[in-house]
């Protein structure tokens, strides 16, 4: 589905490539998005902008607008929360330094995952997982694929169930900065901080209201109202939160890999009327300026 504010546009502001934990290269991702009639795309890899240059070239070939994006990990009351940064200055030195620190945290986490899984007797586990990640920092999906290739498990789902999922040996919690600090990184680079997929944190309604209020007090500006895998009840609740905290509304598929019909590029539940779209506040983005 596309956006109610303009039926000609299809805007997807949350997806992943092989620069983090996605299955498609930035070029393959953009080409797939073009096939899905996406007109404006934000590539939001985890704690890295390493795929944006390649994605920009592919977007130009497809006459698609690419919005600078990233998904940043942070902590809120000991919960790992994700903040999507959109439309920031890619050349901002402070933001680049912050991303370098996030990358160091991810490398430390990857090394610890490999150490904890050493009893599986997979040779060069970290090296092989890094190769799966295209030479960048491997995440749990990359470790899962190596485990499948080594015959330790039948598929990635089994890898997570036995070794990598919540509470298992490979479930390593990295050190992440606090929510307020990460929001300020995005703001200082001229971008818009978005609270990503709020219903995926499995917080109670009360806790989610508290998170959203704290996010707004930290000067976060938008919330993902519509994303993949949501029910109509989720959409209604997030709309309520968005309006209650006077936030901008964002949307995105959170696409990671092909083959999941509930999570496809550009196929996003229609955002309710009456919300202020985040894309109306982007800087000089072709085709989606605010009305008037």
Quick synopsis:
This protein is an alpha/beta fold. It has helices at 26-35, 52-61, 93-116, 125-132, 140-149, 156-164, 179-188, 205-217, 232-244; strands spanning 11-12, 40-43, 65-76, 79-86, 192-195, 222-227, 248-252.
List keywords for this structure.
292 residues, alpha/beta, DNA polymerase, domain 1, 9 helices, globular
Can you walk through the features of this model?
This protein has about 290 residues and is an alpha/beta fold. It folds into 2 domains: about 10-100 and about 175-280, Metal-dependent hydrolases (TIM Barrel), CATH 3.20.20.140; about 105-165, DNA polymerase, domain 1. Helices cover about 35% and strands about 15% of the residues. The chain has helices at about 25-35, 50-60, 95-115, 125-130, 140-150, 155-165, 180-190, 205-215, 230-245, and strands spanning about 10, 40-45, 65-75, 80-85, 190-195, 220-225, 250. It has a 7-stranded mixed β-sheet. Helix 1 (about 25-35) packs parallel to helix 2 (about 50-60) and helix 5 (about 140-150) crosses helix 6. The longest helix has 24 residues, at about 95-115.
Number of strands: 7
Could you name the CATH class of the largest domain? Answer: Alpha Beta
Specify the structural class.
alpha/beta
Count the domains. 2
Annotated CATH architecture of the largest domain: Alpha-Beta Barrel
